[in-house]
Amino acid sequence: GAFGTLRERHSRQMEGMIRQLEIRACTDGLTGLFNQHYFQESLPAWLREASARGDPVSLVHIDLDGLKAINDTQGHAQGDIVLKHVGRLIAGEARPLDIAARTGGDEFVLLLPGTDAAGATAVAERLRQRVAQTPCARADGKGRLPVTVSLGVATSARGTGTAEDLLRRADEALYRSKAAGRNRVSLSG
What we know:
The protein has helices at about 1-25, 35-55, 65-75, 75-95, 115-130, 165-180; strands at about 35, 55-65, 100, 105-115, 135, 145, 150-155, 185. The strands form two sheets. Strands 1-3-4-2-7-8 form a six-stranded mixed sheet, sandwiched between helices. A two-stranded antiparallel sheet has the order 5-6. By secondary structure, the chain is an alpha/beta fold. It contains six helices and eight strands; from the N terminus they run H-E-H-E-H-H-E-E-H-E-E-E-H-E. The protein starts with a helix and ends with a strand. The longest helix is centred in the first third of the chain and has 25 residues, at about 1-25. The model has no long low-confidence stretch (mean pLDDT about 90).
C-alpha cells in the first residue's frame, strides 16, 4: 500500500544520497577530478594489478606554472578559474581507465595504466601543448589569460616498484622541468 510506496521512495532517496556522498568523498570539489585521497588509495592497487599482468604503469605529475602570482595579482577567484580550466584540459586528455586527480593546490597527476614511458611522454607533451594553446577566461570577462604547466613523467615497467618510488621519480622529473624554465615535459631517469 501507501506505506510500502513511501518506504520504497525513501529507500531510493537514501541510496541516491549515499552515492552522492561516495562521489564527494573521492572527488576534488573545485575541479571535479579525483582527489588526493582517492589517488593515494588507488595507486598501490593499480601497481599490483599491472605487476600481475606484466603491464607498465606511468604517472604524469603536473604543476600549474605561476598560480601563486595569478592569485597574488588577480585574486583567488581567477586562480580558481585557472584550476578548473586546467582540470578540464587534463580530464579531456584522460582515457576512461586513467586516473586524473588534483593532489594539491596547483598540482595534478595523471595515472596511465598500461602505458609505457614513450606513450606517457607523448600524452604529457600533448597535454602541455593543449594547456599552452588554450588560454583561460579572465574572471572580469575581459580577454583570456595564458596558462602553462610543467610535467614530470615516470614509468613502472611491468608494474614493478612501489607507489612511493613512482611518485618520487615523477616528482623529481617535474622539478627538472621547472628548473629548466617551466612549460616543458621531463622524463624520469
